Amino acid sequence: ALLCLALRDQILPPNVNLDTPDPACVLPWVGRTAEPARLTSLLKVSLGFGGHQAALWLERGDMGPTR
Description:
By secondary structure, the chain is α+β, with helices and mostly antiparallel strands. The protein has one helix spanning 2-9, and strands spanning 11-12, 35-36, 41-47, 53-59. The chain is flat and about 45 Å long. The two termini are 25 Å apart.
């Protein structure tokens, strides 16, 4: 559900568990506040104990004309 809302609202949700990112890793981290972004597709990967794995790829469709 979070991926669907992120695609709809064009926003990256916050990462509440990232307090101090490694300064040697120069990636565009999302901190404690949500950030606007231009999203066309998202990938969600879930890994569990015992080898349970799932992946979901979502792409933004044509929203059509606005009313």
